Amino acid sequence: MSAFFRMAQKAKLFGRKRGEEGGGTSGEAAPARTQYYRKRAATMRVSAFGGNDLVKHGASRYDLRDPYHIAIDLSWRDFALAFVGAELAINTVFALFYLASPGCIANARPGSFFDAFSFSIETLATVGYGVMAPVTPYGHAVSTVEIVCGMAFTAIMTGLVFIRFSRPRPKILYAKQAVITSHNRSPTLMLRIANGRLTLLTHASARLGVLLYEKTAEGQSFRHLHELHLSISSRPFFPLTWTLMHHIDAKSPLYGYDAEQLAQADAQLFMTIEARDHALSAFVYDLHIYSHADILFGMHYADAVMIDDQRRSFADLHRLSLVEPDEPGAPCES
């Protein structure tokens, strides 16, 4: 499944949510169905796409049948909290097992949860300071089970931490706004990106789509994802910056739209990037979204790549989002 196809699925999901809220279907069926889903299923809200919320009804955020995906998808803060919580929970359970049989741990104060919990931590970590030790068959049995659980827990957490650190992450920088300006006397949508790493990216490819709020001939409202053709959609290497261009001609889904019409259609630009990072020896992927408010008419990007005194190209990434007004009379709207 391509990255753009996955983007389309998320866009259709966003459109379904908009259709439910906007009353896109006729009659009273849509509000009733929305209320039914709210009563029956949990809601998952994803806010990781350029500040745009994608809301999904009927899906569980944490599917316990797939713990690996949960552990990988968590943020580092949540992952650390989950690790500490699991550590405390395991030691608490085994401490209660030790307390269930008084006298099973040598040198532990009778009925002391702190001593039982401390001994559980030492056993789970296979430290064994020698002060406290199991002295009864019950104590030996519980500590044996805990040692096995501790070895498995350590191995699992070590693997998860390694995977989280080794997962390739893109460092693609995006201009804050997209612009529609005149290029070769034709209105053109432009989006500028930059390689934020000091290493070279190769085999870079980009795809662009626009999500528009439309109405059918039957009067039904829905969100439709249109793919926007890029004049250059791939580059053999991506060292500095890259300005993606879509010419707005009669075949373009954006043909005839001005700023007000894009706002009425609640236009959203979806851009996916794929490139190979040679430092990581792996492909990296990224997705970025621009809302209709992020599209500027009659503006163009200021130069961000210049030539120094030694005839070397250098990019000033602080100018990535810098825009300038077009000259008066330049065609910028279709």
Written account of the structure:
This protein is α+β, with helices and mostly antiparallel strands. It folds into 3 domains: 18-61, no CATH class; 67-166, Helix Hairpins (Orthogonal Bundle); 172-325, Immunoglobulin-like (Sandwich), CATH 2.60.40. It is built from 7 helices and 18 strands. The strands form 6 sheets. Strands 5, 6, 7, 11 and 14 form a 5-stranded mixed β-sheet that branches. Strands 8, 9, 10, 12 and 13 form a 5-stranded antiparallel β-sheet that branches. It starts with a helix and ends in a 9-residue tail after the last strand. 23% of the residues are buried.
Comma- or semicolon-separated keywords:
single chain, 334 residues, alpha+beta, Helix Hairpins, Immunoglobulin-like, five-stranded mixed β-sheet, five-stranded antiparallel β-sheet, 7 helices, 18 strands, 32% strand
Give the C-alpha Rg: 28 Å
CATH architecture of the largest domain: Sandwich
Number of domains: 3
Characterize the biggest β-sheet. Answer: 5 strands, mixed
N-to-C order of helices and strands: HHEEHHEHEHEEEEEEEHEEEEEEE
Label the structural class. alpha+beta
- Give the helix tally: 7
CATH class bucket of the largest domain: Mainly Beta
Strand content: 25-35%
CATH superfamily of the largest domain: G protein-activated inward rectifier potassium channel 1
Question: What is the helix content?
Answer: 25-40%
Q: Which outline best applies? A: elongated
